[in-house]
Design brief:
Layout (H helix, E strand, L loop, with lengths): L9 H13 L3 H7 L4 H8 L7 H11 L3 H17 L5
Helix pairs in contact: 2-3, 4-5
Keywords: DNA-binding
InterPro entries: Lambda_DNA-bd_dom_sf, Toxin_antidote_HigA
GO molecular function: DNA binding
Length: about 90
C-alpha cells in the first residue's frame, strides 16, 4: 500500500522532489539559504519540522509558495496525530 501525503515527511519531499533533481547536496542548500544549518539538516533527515523561517527560505529558493511548505508540514502533523505518532 502506498503512503498518503499525510504520511510523507516534508524532509523526504524536499530531498526527493527538489534536491535530487537539481543535484543539490545538503551543504549546498545550507549555504544557499539564510537559515540555521541545524534546522535545515534536521528537516532533510526527517527529524525536524518545516518552521515558518524554513518555509520562507525554501519558498524563495525553489520558487514555490510559503504555504506549500507549511501545508506539507500540517498534513504530515495531522497524519501523525491520526496514526498515534507512527509513520
Amino acid at each position: 500500500m502506498s503512503a498518503s501525503l499525510q504520511e510523507i515527511h516534508p524532509g523526504e519531499i524536499l530531498r526527493e522532489e527538489f534536491m535530487k533533481p537539481l543535484g543539490l547536496s545538503e551543504a549546498e542548500l545550507v549555504s544557499a539559504l539564510d537559515v540555521p544549518g541545524g534546522e535545515l539538516i534536521a528537516l532533510i533527515a526527517e527529524a525536524g519540522p518545516v518552521t515558518q523561517n524554513l518555509a520562507r527560505a525554501l519558498a524563495a529558493h525553489f520558487k514555490v509558495s510559503v504555504q506549500f511548505w507549511l501545508n506539507l508540514q500540517a498534513a504530515y502533523d495531522a497524519g501523525m496525530k491520526e496514526n498515534g505518532g507512527r509513520q
